[in-house]
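User: My collaborator sent over this chain with a note saying "see what the structure looks like." That's all I know about it. Can you take a look?
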Amino acid sequence: MSAPGIPPVSFDEAEILAAARDRAGGADFEDQSFREAFRILLADLEASPLNAGGRFGQHARILDSLGVRLTFEEYCRRYPEITDEEIAAPLVVIGQTRTGTTRLHRLLSSDPAVYSARWWEVRSPAPFADWDGTPPDPRIADAHAQVKMILETQPVLASIHPWDAEGPDEEIMLMEHAFKSHVPESSTSVPGYRKWIDAADWSDCYAYLKKMLQFLQWQKKARGERADRWVLKTPQHLGYIDDLLSVFPDAVIVQTHRDPVDTIPSSASMYGALWGLGQDQVDFHEVGQQNFERFSWMIQRSLEARARIGDDRFIDVWFADVGRDAMGELRRIYDWIGRDVSSEAAHAMETWLKENAREKRPAHDYSLEKYGLSRAGIEAEFREYRERFILPRT
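Assistant: Without extra context I'll predict from the sequence alone. Here is the result:
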């Protein structure tokens, strides 16, 4: 499969590993825990409906992830103190996609006393090999170019999600480098990989996430940044709360809520646009069914985890409440964790609210029918969750 100007690529495991080693000067992988997930993902990508550009993009993304792993291992050999960095009591925002996790995360990250992973950092956590350390970091310009390309290819994404190359973003892209994440299914159809990760042990992936945060924190300190805790955000954590707490036992969890009747078609709309970045044709009913199944699976697992762990580890935040009184909800979260909202934090949060008002972006239009979904079907599937978190507040 090829197209003018786009070189054909292969998802052959040996070829890709050899190319990654060559880029790294012949270094091999010390940590081989990614290999099974990697192999299954490659097989699905080979069989996927990606066009030439989509194949090339996924191939490049995989090589980048392998490069991150090799570069990180080299940094740890040279600077073993990286893995001594303490990631203390992170504040973790979880919830279904389209429940306001991005808005809440970016508001919390406005506090100058906290760390967050920026989009350019999660896309390229390892410094480029040819960078001499002189500011600005070339990863930032590279991230701006990537965002520009994404929005030029699929302008509708600007109405669905606020893209910011230098803004806080999801650590799911750090987990992508462990080859266990929901990122691939947001790009194309990978049914075999999805089935495999649903049954997989994720402990190694969360351990790798901690290492990536240590790596970023070490770099932030070298740049002169100082903070006392992280603010994290990834909807994926909703399905892996036990794994998250096994690696970050003192994590504080903020769970966002919104009716799945609204979130499922909205999420499907975003995934459909992302699939369109690398496919000539998108089966929107497949996208809808995938989102329906994914969030049913994650919400059920979150309900079971909360029953085991206890509600005292969670603070619940509703989408509509943040829309009505964002600063009030932020103060409620800070009260819950025993932290004051400093005057500097309050000013930064209020400034972010003014500069990022929803009406400054195009309206996001979507429907249940386009994605083969129905209100009755969603209400039935998510009955337990809706009765606990949605209907009492309706």
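A starting point for your reply to your collaborator: The chain has one domain: 88-393.
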